[in-house]
User: What shape does this take?
Amino acid sequence: MRKKIVAGNWKMNNNKGETAELIQALKPLSFSPDIRVMIAPAFTHLAQAEKLTQGGRLEVLAQNMNASDSGAFTGEISAGMLYSIGINKVILGHSERRAYYNETDSSLKKKVETALTHNMEVVFCFGEELEDRKAGNYFEVIQTQLETALFDLTPSEWSKIILAYEPVWAIGTGETASPQQAQEMHAFIRGLIALKYDQVLADDVCILYGGSVKPANASAIFSMRDVDGGLIGGAALKAEDFMAIIQSV
Ligand code: PGA
Assistant: This one.
C-alpha cells in the first residue's frame, strides 16, 4: 500500500542558520505513520540537516546529483558523496534543472540509473510546458518523458521511484492545476505504468503533484484518488505553511 508523501524543495534558499531554524520549527510536528515528510535543503546544509533530523521522522533529500560516480566534473556532487553523509534520496529532473541546466529525459535516465546503483530513492519530476497544455498534447509529452527516462527500469527498481508530476506552468506562478486536472493526469500516468508493467506495480507507485501548492489549495488536490501528496516549493519555506500542507494530506 503506497504512503502519502509531502516533500519540501527548498531550492537555492536558506543559509546555514535559516536551515537549522526551519528544521527545528518542523521537528515537533507529529503526523500519521502512513505519511512521509521530506525536506530538500541546499547541498551545503545537507550534512547539518541530516544530523538535526536524526531520531525524528523528517527525511532529508538532495535536490540534484551528477550521473557519474567521480571524476573531472568541477562543481558537481556524486551519489556516493551524498550517501557518505547519510543522504539516500534525491530529486531528479526538476523543471528548473531542465530549463536552466539543459537536463533532458535521456540525461536524466542516466542519473536515475546511477542513483539506483547507489540504492538511493529518487523523486523524479516531469511535466508539460504551458504551450503543451494549450496545444492539448500534454498526455503525449508526459508519456514521452516517462518512457524515455524510466520505462527501461526493472519492476523491482520501481520500488525506489517516487513520481512528481509538476506542470511547468504551475511552478512558482501561483497558478495551480485544478484538482480534476491533477487527477486526470495522475490516473493517466498510473495507467501507463500498468500497461508497461502491471496494475500492482502501478498501484504501488507514489505520484506527487507539484506546482503552487499552498495551505489553501492542498486538501482539495490531495483528496484526489491518484494524488499521493505533493512536492512543495515556495510554501515549504515557511514552517507554518508547510505544516498546514502536511496536515492536509
Ligand atoms: P512551487 O514549486 O510550489 O513554488 O510552485 C514547486 C516545485 O518547484 O517543486
About this structure: The chain has a mean pLDDT of 97. Residues 9, 166, 171-172, 210-213, 231-235 surround 2-phosphoglycolic acid (CB under 6 Å). The radius of gyration is 17 Å. The first strand starts at residue 4 and ends at 9.
